[in-house]
Amino acid sequence: MDAVLKATIYDCFEKGLLSKTPLPDYVIEIPNNPDHGHFATNLPLTLASSQKRAPREIASVLVENLKDEGDLLESTEIAGPGFINFRISPTEWHAVLCNVLSLRADYGRTTYGNNEKVLVEFVSANPTGPLHLGHGRGAALGDTLCRILSFCGYEVTREFYINDAGQQIKMLGESVFCRFKQMYDPAYPFPDNGYHGDYILDLARIISEEADLKNLSEEAAIDICTQKGKAMMLDEIKQDLSRFRVAFDVWYSENALYDSGLLKSALDTIKEKEHVYDREGAQWIKTSDFGDDKDRVIQKKDGQFTYFASDISYHLEKKRRGFKKAINIWGADHHGYVPRMNAALLAHGFPEDWLSVMLIQLVKLWKGGQEIKMSKRAGDFVTLKELVDEVGVDAVRFVFLTKSHDSTLDFDIDLVKKQDSDNPVYYVQYGHARICSIFRKAASEGISLPDRPDGLLERLILDEEMALIRRMAEFPSLLDEISRTLEPHRLTYYLTDLAASFHKYFNLGTKIPEYRIVTNDRETSHARLFLADAVRAVIANGLGLLGISAPERM
RNA sequence: GCGCCCGUAGCUCAGUUGGAUAGAGCGCCGGGCUUCGAACCCGUAGGUCGCAGGUUCGAGUCCUGCCGGGCGCGCCA
User: Fold this and answer.
1) For residue A418, what pLDDT is reported?
2) Cβ of residue A79 near strand B, that is under 7 Å?
3) A85 vs A30: CA distance, rounded Å
4) Each residue of A378-411: pLDDT tens digit?
5) Is nucleic acid strand B under 7 Å from A407's C-beta?
6) Through-space distance between the first and last CA atoms of chain A, rounded to whole angstroms
7) Residue A549: its pLDDT value, please?
8) Is strand B within 7 Å of residue A500 (CB)?
9) pLDDT < 70 stretches in chain A
């Protein structure tokens, strides 16, 4: 389409029908209103000022000189203030359908990413407690984004950064140890800022069975509680994620940064770059030279490195491992941290767009018409596991992925639970199951499809049939667009639309028997079954990218 | 006080580098199953796109200022 337009405009330049100017930023879009054709462009409007002519006049010059050499177009018209609306000929749409049918599970796969190595870091929950709803949102988002990026030709690595070096991990150990002590001495004081959840008590029980905490020094016992507690929590996190259909390629330990000396050598490079200075006995990095609102400490007065220091070295390490691009998915409460991270990376000469941080806004949980405040320290929260137990993986993932990540999400647990049949995920899945059912029906009537749809597709002439094909044609470019904008939620809306188009089409046949998919005319049945089969493939591909099952029966 | 995100139908939310008459689901009201799955379809009602300016052929979308809500502003992680 764009090729036709470009050929046309250069031809008009050559012939002197239009004065030669640089091409403006025009768009070719799919209009909302079907009356406006299959595609529309605002090219004449954008040319108006440089050409110093009326948009409609420019439009008529372009239309009269259209270079449609492949015979792509069925009709062209000038509309409104100076849009050009195009209709594609049916045979072109049939070609799209053939393409879907031959590619099937690979339909939508693109080379947009050019095999670029990209690292997506997400969830990265501290191993001090179970995953909660916020983590679930990050997990669903990150996982789906990775699936889409891979599908679009990126070489994706999924990474979970384990914050196992800091204060909070010690606090886990102390909390567990305290619960252990309290088994014998209920008055034993609980540490300030300790973790209060019931799971701490479980850890204390299990660890005290495995290790003889009683006869160890307090220091040694706390150390065991810390190490075992951390390992067990991490194990639980891995299980929860796996059940949520989220897999990671790399589990990267913050401790490893210290142990391997990477942190130290990274800080040496920072110092070489002369962006570090001494003040009041601490080491500061001049992030304010690179867009941060103030400088930051990387090494404290007591010689300890800050969390920021290890995070900088972690990102230097990511780059060193050869990634051309990094995407971090963080909770919105870390947003203040973004400018300093970017500043530190700029100080190291990273390209400005090397790191993209996606901030996910809060998940607010509602139950019985009331908001439930969640706090990990207070031990008062709903875990991802509990939610999945109640509503199932498919529904939870779909709800998370239906909202844009930078908007807070109200998760009404009663609604999602009771919704069962009203939940939009079932609407899409039902489309898939329904098509499977039609094929079962066709088989029971002895209808078998030819290997190829050649010569049959001109039977597809209904508006609803064309609408389905047009929808499917958008799929690959939608995925590219999602890769570019990092907005996976658009896929859920696409699938809902596609399923709606199918349900609508299907329902034609409840009124008029000739419009059924399996109908009296055999060739028409074949053509419609091919169409349905293609829709089934696209729904399955889309659900697959969302990490949601495509059931054959429901 | 400063910074980031959000504000669109009764509710929850979409709205594709600015495009033509602002959409969906839920809820309300009313229709549609004697053969392909009614977990579906069709229709009615419901809007000052928070407010006010600005940019232009054109603004829910971009800019400025307000209002309202959320989240951050440690030598914590």
Assistant:
1) 65
2) yes
3) 10
4) 666 788 998 899 889 999 999 999 999 999 988 8
5) yes
6) 41
7) 97
8) yes
9) 369, 374-380, 418-421
CB A429 within 8 A of CB A550: yes
Residue A448 contacts strand B, CB under 7 A: no
| Residue numbers 205-264 of A with CB closer than 7 A to any atom of strand B | 254
Nucleotides of strand B lying closer than 7 angstroms to a protein CB: 2-7, 12-27, 32-33, 35-42, 57-58, 69-77
CB A483 within 8 A of CB A523: no
Distance A310 CA to B47 C1' (A): 51
Residues A407-427: tens digit of each pLDDT: 998 888 777 776 566 788 999
What is the rounded CA–CA span in Å between residue A252 and residue A262? 13
The arrangement of strands across the sheet holding A39-41 comes to A28-29, A39-41, A83-88, A73-79
Q: Residue A272 CB closer than 7 angstroms to strand B?
A: no
Task: Decide: helix, strand or coil at residue A425.
Answer: helix
Element (H, E) at A227: helix A218-243
Nearest in space to A528 (alpha carbons), one of A469, A476, A446, A471: A469
Phi and psi for A271 in degrees, rounded to 5? -65, -40
Q: How far is the CA of A269 from the C1' of B24 (A)?
A: 53
* Nearest one of A397, A257, A255 to A320, comparing CA atoms: A257
Strands A355-360 and A325-331 come out as parallel
Pick the closest to residue A153 from A123, A113, A97, A187 (CA basis).
A113
Cα–Cα distance for residue pair A376/A374, rounded to 1 Å: 7
Query: How many alpha carbons fall within 13 Å on the CB side of residue A415?
Result: 10
CA A96, A102, A104: angle at the middle one, nearest 5?
A: 95
Q: What is the DSSP string of A346-392?
A: HHTT--TTSEEEEEEPPEEEEETTEEEP-BTTTTB--BHHHHHHHH-
Pairing of β A363-367 and β A155-162? unpaired
ipTM of the complex: 0.96
User: How far are the Cα atoms of A107, A208, A213, A219, A221 from residue A216, in angstroms, in the given order?
Assistant: 61, 11, 5, 8, 6
Quick check: A360 and A405 in contact, CB under 8 A?
yes
CA dihedral (A139, A140, A146, A149) in degrees, to 10, reads -150
Please give residues of chain A from 278 to 317 whose alpha-adjacent beta carbon (CB) lies under 7 Å from any atom of strand B: 279-282, 293, 296-297, 300-302, 304, 306-308
Contact A204, A194 (CB under 8 A): no
Furthest-apart CA atoms within chain A: distance in Å: 96
Tokens of A99: 């393409």
For residue A323, the model assigns a pLDDT of 97
Is residue A155's beta carbon less than 7 angstroms from any atom in nucleic acid strand B?
no
Nucleotide nearest residue A32, measured CA to C1':
B20
